[in-house]
Amino acid sequence: MTLPRPELVLIEDDDVDVMAVRRALRKLSITVPLHVHSDGVAALEWFKARPPSAPPLIVLLDLNLPRMNGLEVLRALRADPALKNLVVFVVTTSKAESDLRSAYDLNVAGYIVKSEIGRDFMQLVTLIEHYWRIVELPNA
Could you give the angle at the alpha carbon of 71 between the alpha carbons of 122 and 22, nearest 5°? Predict the structure, then answer.
């Protein structure tokens, strides 16, 4: 049985970073759906509206968001029985040790600092693609 390829969710308020992720997906010929939300409140509403049979998701979450920051989003996801097992990678400008520890305390799959990858998100997208090729993911 072939499992469906996961869909990507990008929770990011910086338009340049969103364009960079889209560009990296195109350059690498990755044709999975990309759902973009510019704030945590809108993202949580979208997650809760998804049907239970929807394909698995991999979430790329910025910490510095309007209306609800990324750690608040992560706490809300982990508190919701239907969303608590989502695979979440934090992608942020924050190098603060407290943010790093808080994110891992909330069971993120990885913490990636944007300055380490620069504006070229090819490495990040490649990492995510390799991740879903070798790791089995449950449906939402």
Answer: 25
87-92 β-sheet, strand order: 34-37, 7-11, 57-61, 87-92, 110-113
Question: What is the C-alpha separation between 89 and 82, in angstroms, rounded?
Answer: 18
Are the CB atoms for 64 and 94 separated by under 8 Å? yes
Sign of CA dihedral 40, 44, 35, 4: positive
pLDDT at position 1, please? 44
Q: Name the nearest CA neighbour of 11 among 102, 99, 77.
A: 77
DSSP H or E segment with residue 6: none
Residue 56: per-residue pLDDT: 81
Overall residue count recorded for the chain in this entry: 140
* Partners of residue 7 on adjacent β-strands: 57
- For residues 30 and 13, give the distance between their C-alpha atoms in angstroms, rounded to a whole number: 22
Pick from 7-16, 54-63, 116-125: least confident: 116-125
The predicted model scores a pTM of 0.89
Q: Which residues have C-beta within 8 Å of that of residue 3, sequence separation ≥ 6? A: 56, 136, 137
State which amino acid sits at residue 51. Answer: P
